[in-house]
Amino acid sequence: MKFDRNKHVFHSPDFEEIIKDTIRFFNGTPVQSIPVPEKFHGTGVYAIYCIAKTGVYKDFHDINRTSYNVPIYIGKAVPSGWRQARSSNSTETLNYELNNRIREHGRSLEQGAELKTNDFRCRFMILEGAESDLIGTVEAALIRSYKPIWNSLIDGFGNHDPGSGRYEQAMSDWDVCHSGRLWAKKCKGKHKTKKDLLVSISDFMIKLKEGSK
């Protein structure tokens, strides 16, 4: 049987426009403190923004202090059972994955060396019902668009405790730079040096500042 790749390629201008619409909506959502003051239910996509006046990320302050244009991290919170296709997309089923994920990040910021929770803000978009199927796609589109430093260069901010028996892996770049999470200290694998990572952060911030002018 002759193979024709073109017969396997799907393309939809309508789908592209839907993703553009979700990103426009996302960028227009209100900015909130971390953790969000009021507990809310839902799943979706979120971004974290830095407004620190001091430290290695201080250049974010001038970039984000009014418009919050450049996230430091982008993530998602999916319905329980999503990875095993057991989740329900019913809007009547209340879950708090998005709220809980942002609160979890707040604890990481509290524990992280040289970081202050008050120096960070978030915005998020709730995707429920049929729209919850877009969560992974929208997250990926936002990461491609903004290339946040904690997604693209200093990996590990969104990591969870790997659990007993898996501490032979290396400590994440984020935990090397911002030590404090107790479970991360149990990771014994060889990791990059903090000195080298801080140089990478400095180079990233210089390029980011130049690009914002």
General description of the model:
The structure is a single chain. The chain is of the alpha+beta class and 213 residues long. The chain has a domain at 12-155: GIY-YIG endonuclease (3-Layer(aba) Sandwich). The protein contains seven helices and four strands, in the order αββαβαβαααα. It has helices spanning 13-27, 59-64, 97-111, 135-146, 149-152, 173-177, 194-211, and strands at 32-33, 44-50, 73-77, 120-126. A four-stranded antiparallel sheet has the order 1-4-2-3. The longest helix is centred in the last third of the chain and has 18 residues, at 194-211. It is globular.
Rounded to the nearest angstrom, the radius of gyration is: 19 Å
Q: Which structural class best describes the helix and strand composition? A: alpha+beta
Which strand order do you get reading across the main beta sheet? 1-4-2-3
- According to CATH, what is the class of the domain at 12-155? Alpha Beta
Reported CATH architecture of the domain at 12-155: 3-Layer(aba) Sandwich
* Unreliable residue runs: none
